Amino acid sequence: MVVVVVLAVLAVVAVIVGAHWFVWRRLVRDTTESSGTARRLGTVAIVVLPVLSVAAVGVGRSETPFWLQRVLAWPGYLWLAVLLYLVLALAVGEAVRPLLRRLMDRRETEREAAPDLVTAGTTAGAPAAAPAPAPASTGAGTGTGTGAKAEARTSSASTASSASAPASGVIADGPRDDQASPPATATGTTASTSPSRRLFVSRVVGGAAATAALATVGYGTYGVLRGPRIKRVTVPLAGLPRGAHGFRIAVVSDIHLGPILGRAHTQRIVDTINSAGPDLIAVVGDLVDGSVEDLGPAAEPLAALEAPHGAFFVTGNHEYFSGAAAWVDHVRELGLRPLENERVEMPGFDLAGVNDVAGESEGSGPDFEKALGDRDRTRTSVLLAHQPIVIDDAVRHGVGLQLSGHTHGGQLWPGSLVAELANPTVAGLERYGDTQLYVTRGAGAWGPPVRVGAPSDITLVQLASRQA
């Protein structure tokens, strides 16, 4: 077992190191001068940022002062999201890069061929210029004729001097052939001062990849900080009496209060839930990432939740990383009722809740027999369970509807593809035998405060009677 863990850790480290090397190579080395300031700064950043990320993840599971956790969390976690989309964008750039080079080579070839075509056309179509006639002597006197002859002698001497210059190895004007100045480009600058086509392509691809990654992460961060939106779902339930038709349950999960998301985040969620006017509120786990001492004030707005039939809470796996017993007591003080492997009767159905499977390590895992074993099977039931993976137990105990979270809908695409491997349902409503499972994408975010392709939500589940 130890060997497997070590190999897994080494594999993760190798992937992270490889990703950073790839980003450095394409975004720093290939786009900057070898001795320039830009390359030095880029190299420093590619070393410092992953260190901040490791520190942010590490201090979250230790007794590190909360203020230090908050300082490290923003840059450390955001870099993880940026790194993901930089790697994806640069990978796409690998396919674009040769196409762009080929296009530039073709245009360069066409540009070099254009002057030859023009010269060839001029030579073929234009008649040769006739030599200019020599000026006639006026014969107006000896002085004039003598001057003409003198000019002729001078011209002949000059011509002879020019002809003999190469032989003497002395050139009066202009540079020697081996000291010729570099050819000028079309823009008037020399070829040695303009960037090569390879450098130009690298800068275009790198710049586009960086822009795409930063824009994606920026928009995903805005979506989280803006707060979740209400999603409405109608679920028909066999056995639900007509009197309970239209009963509305506000389902919120994965709020993840912590170093990044705090009291303002909680207040936005409370305001959104209350504005929907539910009959009952279900908080289905992963409320916090930290201790009551650090995050108690951030959770206080939950005391303002309003619903005629109350607000209920079940633990998620992150509560067991943060002191589950203390949080169960605290949410009870805030007015929420924890359902620890128990159930209560609602108008027309039973509401049950089970502890998260992570509680098994503390001897307080889910107990379906205790929560559902002796109930009246003629009444339909709604089960609150943080993780969708307990759906098989729900089916065996005849649950009508299970409400879960945990998956975040994948949070960061393509994370949804990974989430599908570990969960029966990643988001939305699905049926398993006679039991229906609804999974909310959650109201917050874990790690990077970013969501891409999986917007946060609070679901208003409306129960529908088939007898109505």
Summarize the structure.
The protein is α/β, with parallel strands linked by helices and 468 residues long. It has 2 domains: 2-101 and 204-210, no CATH class; 228-465, Purple Acid Phosphatase, chain A, domain 2. It is 47% helix and 13% strand.
Q: What would you say this structure looks like, in words?
A:
The structure is a single chain. This protein has 468 residues and is α/β, with parallel strands linked by helices. It has 2 domains: 2-101 and 204-210, no CATH class; 228-465, Purple Acid Phosphatase, chain A, domain 2. 47% of the residues lie in helices and 13% in strands. The chain is built from 12 helices and 12 strands. The strands form 2 sheets. A 6-stranded mixed beta sheet has the order 1-12-2-3-4-5. The radius of gyration is 38 Å and the shape is elongated. Residues 132-194 have low confidence and may be disordered.
Q: What keywords describe this structure?
A:
single chain, 468 residues, alpha/beta, six-stranded mixed β-sheet, 12 helices
Question: What secondary-structure arrangement, pairings included, does this model have?
Answer:
Blueprint lengths: L1 H26 L9 H23 L6 H60 L16 H27 L28 H30 L2 E9 L10 E5 L10 H14 L3 E5 L7 H8 L11 E4 L4 H4 L1 H10 L3 E2 L3 E5 L2 E5 L14 H5 L7 E5 L6 H6 L4 E4 L10 H8 L5 E5 L2 E5 L17 E9 L3
Parallel strand pairs: 1-12, 2-3, 3-4, 4-5, 7-8, 8-9, 9-11
Antiparallel strand pairs: 2-12, 6-7, 10-11
Helix pairs in contact: 1-2, 1-3, 2-3, 3-5
